[in-house]
Amino acid sequence: MSGFGFSRWAGLAVALANTAPGQRHGDLLTSADELAALLRAHGEPEPVDVETGDLAGVLVARDAFNGVFDLAGDEAALAERLNALLDRAARPRLVAHAGVPLHLHVDAPGSSWGGWFAASGAMGLALLVAEHGAAVLTRCAAGDCRDAVLRVGSGPPRRFCSATCASRVRVAAHRQGRRGRPAAE
Ligand SMILES: [Zn+2]
After folding, report:
1. DSSP one-letter string for 149-167
2. What is the CA radius of gyration of the chain?
3. Residue 6 confidence (pLDDT) above 90
4. What is the pLDDT of residues 125-154, one digit of tens each?
5. What's the 164 CA to ligand 1 centre distance in angstroms?
6. Cα(141) to centroid(ligand 1), Å
7. CA distance 122 to 105
8. What angle do CA 45, 123, 133 make, to 5 degrees?
9. In the chain, count of helices (H) and strands (E)?
10. ∠ at Cα 7 (140, 75), nearest 5°?
11. Which residue has the higher pLDDT, 86 or 6?
12. How far apart are CA 131 and CA 184, in angstroms?
């Protein structure tokens, strides 16, 4: 199982946040099938058992994560928001299943998918902030995107959510530069 990994939880929180309708796409999470696909794309072990009734709670967690990313750049407010989410949703504990070694569950026992997302995502984001600083949570630098971005990994800090946004902004800046240049070179 792909199981433990707070970076996986953080990645899921970001992916969930970015299903919200944005400037470049509509709502990408409107059915149980889309929710199951999102979970599977992020290594959730089978069986991924999702029902239509799970959607509402997951969308509440989505709003909560977008609220956190909206505070990017304001370290104190961001920490306060994440702490409130942890306080509400998280109940970390060690669990052993048959054949699976002790591992950490963050959601309260019997949580819905919404409760699981809120707890695991908040914990994942909080641990990344603790390890890398609050600047690890940001929004895409493309003014016409602003999707949530995790600035993790080696190399220069990521500014864009995707190569698509990076190249779109680069091409636009290049065109702008050409227009600004004198006619006689
Ligand atoms: Zn973007």
Report:
1. EE--SSSSPP-SSSHHHHH
2. 19
3. no
4. 999 999 999 999 999 999 999 999 999 877
5. 7
6. 7
7. 13
8. 125
9. 6, 4
10. 55
11. 86
12. 52
DSSP conformational letter for 115:
H
Measured in Å, residue 65 CA sits from the centre of ligand 1 at: 17
Query: Which domains, from first to last, does the chain contain?
Result: 6-137 (1.10.3300.10)
CB 136 within 8 A of CB 82: no
Chain mean position to CA 38? 12
Which are the contacts of 110, defined by CB distance < 8 A and separation ≥ 6? none
The owner of tokens 């902004």 is 169
- CA–CA separation, 25 vs 21, rounded Å? 6
Asked if residue 47 has a cis previous peptide bond (ω within 30° of 0), the answer is yes
Task: Give me the residues near ligand 1 (ion), CB cutoff below 5 Å.
Answer: 140, 142, 145, 147, 161, 165
- Whose structure tokens read 């630098």? 141
pTM over 0.90: no
Coil/strand/helix, residue 98: coil
31 DSSP assignment: S
Structure tokens at 117: 């997302």
- Determine the Cα–Cα distance for residues 158 and 140; give it in Å rounded to an integer: 9
